[in-house]
Amino acid sequence: MLPMEHPLPLSFVLPNPTNLPGLSLNLLDGNFEDLQDLLLRASTLTSNLNHDCSDLNDRLLHLRTDLTKHAVSWISTSLSAKVSLEDLRLNLESLLNLPTDSVGKQTNWELQQLVEELCRIQNRRKYFVTALKLESLVGDLEDSVFHHPISKRKGSTLQDLALKQERFSHAIKTMNQIEEILGDVTMHHSQWRRLVDSADSRVDKSLSVLRPQIIAEHRAFLSSLGWPPKLATSKVEHGEVDSIPNPLLLMQGDEKESYSQSFLLLCGLQQLNTQKEKRNKLHMTKENDNDGLWATDELVKPVASRMEYHFMKWADQPEFIFELVYKVTRDFADGVDDFLQPLIDRAMLVSCSAKEAWVSAMVQMLSGFLEKKVFPRLIDMFKEKHKKSEALSSWFHLVDQMVTFDKRMQTFVNSDTCLSYEGSSTAFSQGISVMGLFCKKPEWLKTWGKIELKDAYRKSKEDIKNEKAWVVDSERTRLGNESNSRSAKYVLSTREDYKAPLVADSFLNRTWRLIDHGLSLPAILPRIQFIRATATRFLWCIFKILLLEFKKTDLSHYSLSEDSLIQACGPINLARYLESKLREWSDDLVFVEMWAAETSVKVDRKPEVSCQGCFFGEELKSLVELETNWLMEIITVFLHQFDNLCSDHFHNNVVSWEEDVITSSSNLTVSQGVAEALDNLRRHLCVLHVNMNPKDFLDLWRNLAEGLDHYVSRKFFSGDPVLGRKKFDRYEVDAEALLTVLQPYCVRPGAFFPRVREILRLLRMHEEEKARLRGALSRNGNNCLRLFGISNLSAQLVEQFCRCY
């Protein structure tokens, strides 16, 4: 056994008398004569001193109460003085508005000084009244918080809890009154900043004591109810979770009322905090963060502590994590909604749903776990080369699970509402989306975009290596060309309608997958950034692939083959199909909202580029330029080939007009060179008609007709007029043959050769009509041509014709 320690002598316990103040020494000398007296009477003196301190505290509290009463009495008495001063000020201001002369200038100046002094006195009176109100309320708050310490003993009864809740409720009501006054001062008297800061400082001290006490009592009460319940997770790995009982629904009587009061206290405390934040951010444009409902968060926190154990076990199997969270959320949602929604209504929380608050808190709990435990580990794996492929697979799997989870939660939240717009930027708030994690972490959003873009580009490169990638469904194309309705040919919707190659579906599916991932983000600006960084860049990669594919075709007017034309139709049709899809997407309300938001904030886009009228404006502009350039290249080759085959026919010094002819049905002759050129043109147009989409083919043959019209009319007027009628007959036959080339594609081909048609009209004029035309030209010039059915040939060319022929 250890030896017993002897107590220290009093000389080691009592302080040194030289270190005590004079008043303390006098007190001790007056009550104790010696050491023995000290030992006998110390407890009695201590009791008397405690009693005196209690009396003094009570007296101090009484004095404060009297001060408050006198202050209120003084305030009520000063109201009449306030009215009198206000009337006097208005009367003096009215005097200042009277007409003045040189005699009354001094009087007006004195009156003005008096008015200013009265205003200053009135402002001071307002300041003193406000300061006294604040002092009274803040003093009452401090008495309620600091002079009534909360009992910390365990096992307190519901009656004790009711007393504490009553005291808490009184303190919150007082703080609301203070906040109302401070809000009015901040709004109308910004120069009283020191008064506001002083009151805020004292209220914050009280709040720093009161809030932990309220939360601690709420948590202790929840724990006494058996919250959180045990999570039955034995069947999770088989795709099921046992149903979980809700302790909130088991409360009855006083227990239920006590929880209701505790819930309302937390709501009141949160409302007070929200008002303070709004006042402090009165002149700031930053949006308030969605903090959820504190009372619901207190329900989720203990549940999260139990679920985290299971989360850590399933770190490599996120589908189990999401399934457990969804199951717990769904099982408790109805009970939480039925029990808490009436309490939220009692607390008068505007636009607050118990079900949404519960779902939001659960989602934010899951988001916090992913932010702290899962994504940092994946980011670290990306930095190690030998783990990069594993990290990519895990990243894609996790993101897919997150997107699926958000869609399930969105469906669950919207299940009770009759109207819900899926896809709207405001349909699914950021608080109820685990994808909102990427909105909070821009660096992770950027990493995700790079991963998705590289993966889509890699898979597309593999797709175009397939032998059937650029193959068009010829059977469907043939059936489409045999349609009886001409207008139906231009109502296009599917890939087969546009005669696009098979790889088009792959390009569009990968583009839409990137867009769909971007649309899963709850905030519109991160959504725009992700789609611009992935889908838009991927589209530009597709444009480069199309450009390279078109350059592979051998479009030479010396050796233009049908295979080359068929190969050129592939990228043209695909570009037209992409254009139609991008226009269809851009008309969707989701993209209209994003384009409007992007235009207003100019997110990574120049204003002159982003304002193309739609979200994919720049991409559509580039696609149209590609299609136009490719069509013009084909038209140019056709025109060069046509010129090579029949140019000699239009140069009279080379061509013999007695050459071999091809006889037509009207016993007239078509020049052999022209016949060969037209036959070649007809074959090429037939190939394009079968393999090119109807819209681009329509543009092509119309522009080709315009080019041929210019070419043939220019060659006519550049010929030798000496040949006379023989040239006219031959030209008329050749021109009629030219018009028949477009006969399969339109009802009136002559409408697309206006100059050639008017030349034929001039050739078929009788001499009398020619004479009238010459006379009209000499008298009226250009104004008379329309009377003779000529509107495309200039007056100079018509005069040349009339003069030479």
Automatic annotation (TrEMBL):
The UniProt transmembrane annotation reads none
Could you tell me which InterPro entries the record lists for this protein? RINT1_Tip20 (IPR007528)
The coiled-coil regions, if any, are: none
State the organism of origin. Answer: Arabidopsis arenosa
* Superkingdom classification of source: Eukaryota
Which protein is depicted?
Answer: RINT1-like protein MAG2L
Q: Where is the signal peptide?
A: none
One Gene Ontology BP term is: regulation of ER to Golgi vesicle-mediated transport
